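Problem 3 from the worked examples.
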Amino acid sequence: AQPLVSSLPAENPVFAQIVAEFVEHLHQQLDELSHAIREDDVDAVARLSHDLAGSSGNVGFAELTEPARKLNQMARDRELTHAESTYSELVALASRIELPNQTANT
């Protein structure tokens, strides 16, 4: 699988810092989302997935937006039956993220 890199201009230190902070917070968000799904807490899943859909798009990781929106829709429909597989998709995508300083110099 190809690495995921932000579409923000990584050569700009401000953007690089924003992306790094997002990735650092992403793992906490995913942990909280996993817990909410296991607890069948539709309100928490709705809030967390909504936040993730917005923030991932804002920092240039559009690939995360669609699965986060799917989770949000499931939560709003109060039906989390398939949430675990969509969550697993998010985790798989997140595991492919590379920060600008992790990519090879070109």
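Problem 4, a separate protein:
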Amino acid sequence: ASLADLAALLYESGACIGNDSGTCHLASNMHLPTLVISNCCKRMKLWRPGWRSGEVLTPPRWVPNFKGSRVRENHWRWFAPTRNAIKILKRLIPSWSLHNTEQPSDS
């Protein structure tokens, strides 16, 4: 696949959710809403897409990352739950929340 193919896919999708800032930069440059999910707050402040409004979901700064334990690095997914991503998406794409109001069943 080429960069043009990726751009076409992003355009048709209407938004980009990913952990790769390169793909999200392309989407942002195309004025699409972006959500980057990452384990590093500092890196994302520097490398976040900035051509269109987008957001970055990272663990809170209070999650420890001491040398040896690396809690934030190894277990960051627990501190960046899906419900937070959904809240961000509803802010970025208001029409998305209209079509996705059903809650998943517990069965």
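Solution to problem 4. The chain is about 45% helix and 10% strand. Helices lie at 3-13, 21-29, 41-47, 71-75, 82-92, 94-99.
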